[in-house]
Amino acid sequence: MQADVALIGAGVIGLLSAKELAEAGLRVVLLERGMAAREASWAGGGIVSPLYPWRYSDPVTALASWSQSAYVHLAQELREMTDIDPELRQKGLLMLGVEDEEDALAWARRHYRPVQTILRDEILRYEPAINIEVERGLWMPEVASIRNPRLGQALRQYAIQHPNITLLENTQVEEVQIQNDCIVGCRTDRGWVHTDKVVVSAGAWSQRVLSELGVNVPIQPVRGQMMVFKANPGLLNRTVLNGGKYLIPRADGRILVGSTLEYSDFIKETTADAAIALRHFANKLLPALQTLEPEHHWAGLRPGSPSGIPWIGALDNVKGLFINAGHFRNGLVLAPASCRLLADILCERTPIVDPLPYRPSVRQMHVDGDWS
To answer: Residue limits of the FAD dependent oxidoreductase domain (predicted)?
Structure first.
């Protein structure tokens, strides 16, 4: 099989990268060892904003701001082309008990983002069913959420339909073949893909792929556990964030509760301690959930990276080897911009944002060890 680009990993980052490259006229092969969009892409909450965005660096803000605007068009396009609705809901984000409120407001002024202080009575007018123990919070009215499993389904269907994309699921990459320090193809358990460009977009598994090529990019798995309740529609309408955990409502009444942050290597099992903690948080913040049993409790592995800035671009070690990985807690948030930037780099177009902060050749030399 011949391709202009092979992508290893078909989560949302891989699928959306394939979409961008295919629309630029390139022939793309997506290689996925399991089913597309079934790992962290399926397991996350789908808030289209970093939690406490002012605590991140400007490179994360640049990608997040571009992506937040892009999601409106992307969700509509996918719904029209695939008949699968990703359920983008622009209902805003309520943040309770924010200790660094002044930092948040200063960040909002600097980046022209709508963030405002909101008092207890206003909070309860927005969400009368929640139980709050603080007198004020912050309100970000433009923040949306997306139903990430359905986003993954829509992107998968788009890939299947597009004539420039070949999606190979349940396909193991056995070797990335290199000759004279140049990519020449990928050997899989289903045959060869001949290409001179390979993009590693394998999420938490990206470092495993790259280490076999002698490349070290500090990406490690970080487990996150969540649960969901099936409640009546309208019980909660907006995402509510309190003390690092959150409730996310869906259009059908389901309410997601998340999430943990655990450095547990590649162990993806759920734990009783996390179940207790998530249930306690949910019951306290939204007392109506006390009468309900969780519908499901699951775990996923985020691709952790220092400071949460993804690596996007060419790896110097091998000509034709690229990466789009390391998005940590913000894979869904940053996906549209990250994948457009990757396509800009591969197609040698003017990039949507300055690519330097994400360039592997720069950042591998300046890892600060901050995994927050």
So the answer is: 4-344
Q: Is the pLDDT of residue 194 over 60?
A: yes
Question: What is the per-residue pLDDT across 73-122, written as a single tens digit (0 to 9) for each?
Answer: 999 999 999 999 999 999 999 999 999 999 999 999 999 999 999 999 99
**pLDDT at position 361:** 75
- Rounded Cα distance between 136 and 225, Å, is 28
Conformation bin of residue 255: beta by default, left when phi > 0, alpha when psi is -120 to 50: beta
User: What are the start-end ranges of the H helices in 24-126?
Assistant: 40-43, 58-82, 101-111, 120-126
Look over the chain and give the mean of its residue pLDDT values, rounded to a whole number.
95
Q: How far apart are the C-alpha atoms of 39 and 330, rounded to whole Å?
A: 14
What would the pLDDT profile of 164-176 be if each residue is shown by its tens digit? 999 999 999 999 9
For residue 372, the model assigns a pLDDT of 38
Determine contact, residues 76/180, Cβ cutoff 8 Å. Answer: no
Query: What is the tens place of the pLDDT at every residue in 280-311?
Result: 999 999 999 999 999 999 999 999 998 899 99
Distance from the Cα of residue 215 to its chain's centroid:
23
Q: CA–CA separation, 296 vs 256, rounded Å?
A: 10
- SS3 at position 100: coil
Q: Give the residue from 112, 132, 113, 114 showing the smallest Cα distance to 122.
A: 132
What are the start-end ranges of the E strands in 189-219? 191-194, 198-200
Work out the burial of residue 248: count CB atoms within 10 Å of its CB; fewer than 13 is exposed, 13-18 middle, 19 or more buried: buried
Determine the length of the chain.
372
Question: Read out DSSP for 134-149?
Answer: -SEEEEETT--B--HH
Order of all β-strands in the sheet with 198-200: 165-168, 28-31, 5-8, 198-200, 321-325, 311-314
